[in-house]
Amino acid sequence: MTEAAADERIVIGRITGCHGIKGWVKVHSYTEPQENFLAYSGWMVQRRGGLQAVEFDAGRRQGKGLVAHIKGVDDRNQAELFQGLEVSVEGGQLPALEEGDYYWRQLQGMQVWCGPEDEQVLLGTVDYLIETGANDVLVVKACEGSYDQRERLVPWLPGSTVTRVDKQAGRIEVDWFLDE
């Protein structure tokens, strides 16, 4: 696995609804902190016909989320056409991470192994992650060759539950128990 390629599109949020009557939309940002959504450029939305460029010319935090104005969209009826669309940017805009930090998308699809080094067992692959507040959680789904067909929720606690991550091998090793 490598860092995001410059031409790879990364979804950074979703337009969830309209705000007011002047073309503003509500945005659920996937960035941390959520205001970082507005710092990017080259936004695109995915429509059935393909990608469409959009420009957010204003935005702010509103309650627990963000609201933003799409340039050229000046009434609620036009804004409704964007409801439910995901917003992406070029992957090359994402900041480089420090050693030991990962974007969630880098962990998705990695195999999860547990047990002593000479007796490791495949639990499955990371399907997605959940943010719980206390810590993130890997949702590990069974795959071909896995120990059993169970889905497991494994806390993302590097140095504790997560003992090793090998991006090159697509492998995460965890200190976890097998339910009998």
Q: Can you walk through the features of this model?
A:
With 180 residues, this protein is mostly beta strands. It folds into two domains: 9-93, RimM (Elongation Factor Tu (Ef-tu), domain 3, Beta Barrel); 104-174, PRC-barrel domain (SH3 type barrels, Roll), CATH 2.30.30.240. 5% of the residues lie in helices and 43% in strands. The strands form two sheets. The protein has a seven-stranded antiparallel beta sheet with strand order 4-3-7-1-2-6-5. The model has no long low-confidence stretch (mean pLDDT 89). Binds ribosomal protein uS19. Keywords: Chaperone, Cytoplasm, Ribosome biogenesis, rRNA processing. One of its GO terms (cellular component) is cytoplasm.
Compact overview of the structure:
The protein is mainly beta and 180 residues long. The chain has two helices and 13 strands, in the order ββββββαβαββββββ.
Features of this protein?
Elongation Factor Tu (Ef-tu), domain 3; SH3 type barrels; seven-stranded antiparallel beta sheet; six-stranded mixed beta sheet; 5% helix; elongated; ribosome biogenesis; ribosome binding; RimM_N_sf; Ribosome maturation factor RimM; rRNA processing
